[in-house]
Amino acid sequence: MILSLIRQHPRLALVLGLLLLLGVGALVGGVFLLSRSYAAPPQPLVYQHQKHIAAGATCLYCHAGASSGAVAGLPSLAKCMGCHTNVQPKDPADQRDIDKLIEYWEAKKPVQWVKINDQPDFVQFNHRPHVAAGVACESCHGNISQMNYAQPYNLNMGFCLDCHRKQAPEKVKRLIDCATCHY
Q1: For the whole prediction, is pTM greater than 0.85?
Q2: Which end of the chain is more exposed for a tag (fewer CB within 10 A), N or C?
């Protein structure tokens, strides 16, 4: 029955073929996106957010740039050593990692951390207005206090727009305007 319809209407065959191709493409793309691994890249030093947060470090203590500018930044080696020259780890096994930190300090070499969260160049993201608006770091970066190591988070345009659409009605038009993030 379908074959006779297709023979009588060749354009129908073309449309059905295109729909089938689009469906397969969407299925393959969806499987790819869902199966992507967001594993953290290897870092030059072990840094366990969970232990530092449990010890009282706050996000803005180490990532002070978030409250004043676009980039949250990383703490300087001097800031790390400010604590680690005086603090003994609760778990003696952690001393090995602290010794590596001390080696960087004594060699006057910065730690070359590997970026975990990165936006494309055509996205202009600024932490400052988010921090000023009281957006919790966990809203975008996940619950770091429960992670040993920071994990990449699926930050994309849909993620941001979903949050922007939930803001006060008088702000939504400005927040979902393309020029807010693409300028």
Answers
A1: no
A2: N
